[in-house]
Design brief:
With 137 residues, the protein is an alpha+beta fold. The chain has one domain (25-133). Helices cover 16% and strands 49% of the residues. It is built from one helix and nine strands, in the order αβββββββββ. Strands 1, 2, 7, 8 and 9 form a five-stranded antiparallel β-sheet that branches. The longest helix is centred in the N-terminal third of the chain and has 22 residues, at 2-23.
Length: 137
């Protein structure tokens, strides 16, 4: 019984240690999107089809969509979309396209820097910054 419990504990500890490696095996696009003092985290992994990727409501005034097309650690391109919610339909205010080669480091790579967008009748401000990690050249 003691051997079985010890083996189980070691297996669980090894599994817990190896989980972050498995989770970080795929490319991850992480964006912090801020409006009116509130920050939303938008994360996405590589997809084959960009169209089903949903937009995220940001404070009822903006929509933000982050798309990373590729497979696992190979990224073909990244597209970021920002829309103003005009109550009739969203109005595209920015489309940013990022193409490879991307820097391949284990730590997050600053993809966009801080972007400031102004839109609407009173020029409301949307800010975002995106990092990319887990990409292979």
């Amino acid at each position: 019984m003691r051997y079985s419990l010890c083996t189980t504990t070691v297996a669980l500890a090894f599994g817990a240690c190896s989980f972050p490696l498995a989770a970080s095996a795929n490319a991850l696009l992480h964006c912090d999107v801020s409006y009116a003092g509130s920050t939303h985290v938008v994360e996405t992994q590589a997809v084959a089809d960009p169209y089903p990727v949903p937009s995220v409501d940001i404070g009822g005034r903006f929509w933000f969509k982050a798309v990373m097309v590729g497979r696992a650690t190979q990224v073909d391109y990244v597209k970021l979309y920002a829309y103003l919610d005009t109550r009739q339909q969203p109005l595209l205010i920015q489309e940013a396209v990022y193409l490879p080669p991307f820097q391949s480091t284990p730590a997050p790579y600053l993809l966009t820097g801080t972007q400031y967008l102004y839109a609407g009748p009173v020029e409301r401000e949307l800010m975002y910054s995106c990092t990319l990690q887990g990409v292979q050249p």
